User: Fold this.
Amino acid sequence: MAGLKRALPLRTAVSTSAGLASAAINFLAVAELAGYAGGRSGWLAILVAGVLITLAAGNFSELTALYPSAAAIRVWIRRGASDQLSMVASLVYVGTVVFVIAADAFVLGHVFLAALPGVPGLLWICALLGLVTLLNLRGIRVAGWVQDLNGLFLLGSLLVVSLLALGHVPAPHWHAALQIGPNWIQALALGVFVFVGFEWVTPLAEEFQDSRVIPRGMFMALGLIAVAFGLFALAAQMVLPAHGLASSPVPQLLLGRAVLGGWGFWWMVVVSLTTAMTTFNGGLATASRFVYAAARERLLPVRFSRLNARLVPQSALVLLAAVALVLAAVVYATGVYTLLINVGAAVESFMYALAAWLVLSLRRREPHRARTFRMPGLPWTTVLTMVVFAGLGVGAATTASGIPGPVPWPLVFVAVLAVLAFWYVRQVVPRLRAPAAAGARIPPPPDV
Assistant:
């Protein structure tokens, strides 16, 4: 069976890690955390979240260095914990990728609805998802170039527009940038969401020329995200009225118009398009490789492990695009994007805590296996990561989701995902692996 194509350089590790985290839904997350932060300190919540995220990045870097695989978290949990837990967690994990893509599509639809009200927003979502799918089918080099160009334009534009906005802020207003409100922990939990997805670059380990560039790419990407979105949060809170920032589904368009008028509005429309491109393109590229790897070991139907002539897992890619489109239509119709923001923040926080525990477990189980990157400060850094992100995960899972009533719907949503994944592992996976019992040759799950 042909393998994936090792063609991607360091710059694509940076752009993929940064682009997957730089979703259009981040603008709504920034607006939501601004309401919790108090004063105008939303930027500080993002900065502190970025510092905490570097701890998670260190753990993912060691795990990737230990087992660079398209199966990523699936391999790490199987080696460090148990096979069943790895299957359940992997399914919830890849499902979160698709849900974030769907939430991002909601923002994209409203951006184009504001820019071109005569065209239904859902039509733009269909067109963009279709375009990204076609580009991915052309091969990983094409997908990599799309990621590089869009990521550069996106982060550069956020820096320029934010700095222009801050240049017009009167000096007396700056003291509010350090005022912290009573709900700042919730703001910090949502700050984590701004970085959600940075580690999704790890399933591309079999597509890079050298998988050792992934840790470097993740750390560089986190710095870029912290600066770009931290400045955007500060500029938005300094320039826009609090009510306008909290009530608009497109705060980035409001900031662009406030800074540069009509030109700024259209500039941020294009920026929003690039955020969707980086999220859709990177999300489909990485998630399809994960599905491909899962299908290689019969966690999913074997047809999803087949590659086309350009070494792209075509069936996996098309499946994910179709599911993302259906979910995007549901989110667009219901407007439950806040729920998905909190679900994404919760699942990612729990996964970061789990990754820290896996580093400790694999250090104990496989102490002599070569590691090209080692998490410094063990065990204290990993213990701190586990405690902090477990707490942030609980905070995100119990934060208000925009749905009336006292029920913590994000927590319910995550629990339902876990139960469904557990049912699938117990009931469906044995049937997929049944040919092995009949004597069919099924290769063992690869670690690298």
Remarks:
- The chain has a mean pLDDT of 85.
- The chain has 17 helices and no strands.
- Residues 10-431 form a domain with the Amino acid/polyamine transporter I fold (CATH 1.20.1740.10).
- The two ends are 15 Å apart (CA to CA).
